[in-house]
Amino acid sequence: MDYMKSFGSLSLGSRLKRLSDALVQDVIRLYQSQGITLNPSFFPLFNLLHQQGAMTVTEAAEKLAVSHPAISKISRKMQREEWLNKTTDPEDERRQLLSLTSKSELLLEQIVPVWAAIQSHLDALITSQEHPLLESLAEFESLVEQHGLYAPVLQQLERRNESQQVVIQGWSAEFKAEFKRLNMTWLEHYFDGELTDRDLEALNNPEGFYLARGGYIWFARSEVNNAVVGCVALARHENGQFEISKMVVKENWQALGVGRRLLMSALDKAREIGASEVFLESSSKLERALQLYQNFGFQQTAHPDGCSYYSRSDIYMTLRF
């Protein structure tokens, strides 16, 4: 068993490194079989200069989207092995240009067919995949470039520390507007603002829709700034049934255990008052929420009415006590 795969996204860098190492080792063997002595790590800069001609270290770094020090380091190695020249730009003495040597030009006749064979085989492997690797990699690189890793993870760690100062509290009229705002934001984000008459009644008059009918509402509130970051309602139905309803956690507070604590509060209350069953309706697009419900023991089953009143809901789940 390859345990690296079981680590999920945490092993992404390690798996990419392992794949890179395996490919590089095969390229080294191929080069050696053809009498080629070029280090495979030189390929990006070597091929860039081959295709686009002489340029500065800064220009090469920008085109390859790597750091200036990285290009400087590899270019020095290539100069020592006589694959590169570094000369003064005749049009600007302040600029130093990198260019291929005559030794490199001779190598091109030998190495270009090898590159073509490697590319042909790799393209065939990629084409056979259900999800083409290069397109997926380009998309992932774009997302990482856009969102980064350090800043959002650091922010999440800070949020996690703050989440320890989040309290779950029962209904308070001062948070009535927040109950509606959180749910409206959720509906707009996931379901294009779909709003039914039942939604309007619940959000405009939660006291009447939930509390007056024997239900409950909880809020997740940050003690740092008194901001409401989540909410959930428990609606009473007939025959000892209760419904988890209007559960929302602000996007930047998700994956920090806030939703779990809200759901736990609702389920603890349902048990306390002798509920026979708790049900909920959800959507297959809300994968994280569905996983949370499953972790608490909810099981998907057929809707008792055949289909939901809400067009956005295609999942019906129950938890029996």
From TrEMBL:
<dbReference type="Pfam" id="PF00583">
    <property type="entry name" value="Acetyltransf_1"/>
</dbReference>
<dbReference type="InterPro" id="IPR000835">
    <property type="entry name" value="HTH_MarR-typ"/>
</dbReference>
<protein>
    <recommendedName>
        <fullName>N-acetyltransferase domain-containing protein</fullName>
    </recommendedName>
</protein>
<dbReference type="GO" id="GO:0008080">
    <property type="term" value="F:N-acetyltransferase activity"/>
</dbReference>
<dbReference type="Pfam" id="PF01047">
    <property type="entry name" value="MarR"/>
</dbReference>
<dbReference type="InterPro" id="IPR036388">
    <property type="entry name" value="WH-like_DNA-bd_sf"/>
</dbReference>
<dbReference type="InterPro" id="IPR000182">
    <property type="entry name" value="GNAT_dom"/>
</dbReference>
<dbReference type="InterPro" id="IPR016181">
    <property type="entry name" value="Acyl_CoA_acyltransferase"/>
</dbReference>
<dbReference type="InterPro" id="IPR036390">
    <property type="entry name" value="WH_DNA-bd_sf"/>
</dbReference>
<keyword id="KW-0808">Transferase</keyword>
<feature type="domain" description="HTH marR-type">
    <location>
        <begin position="9"/>
        <end position="149"/>
    </location>
</feature>
<feature type="domain" description="N-acetyltransferase">
    <location>
        <begin position="177"/>
        <end position="321"/>
    </location>
</feature>
<dbReference type="InterPro" id="IPR050769">
    <property type="entry name" value="NAT_camello-type"/>
</dbReference>
<dbReference type="GO" id="GO:0003700">
    <property type="term" value="F:DNA-binding transcription factor activity"/>
</dbReference>
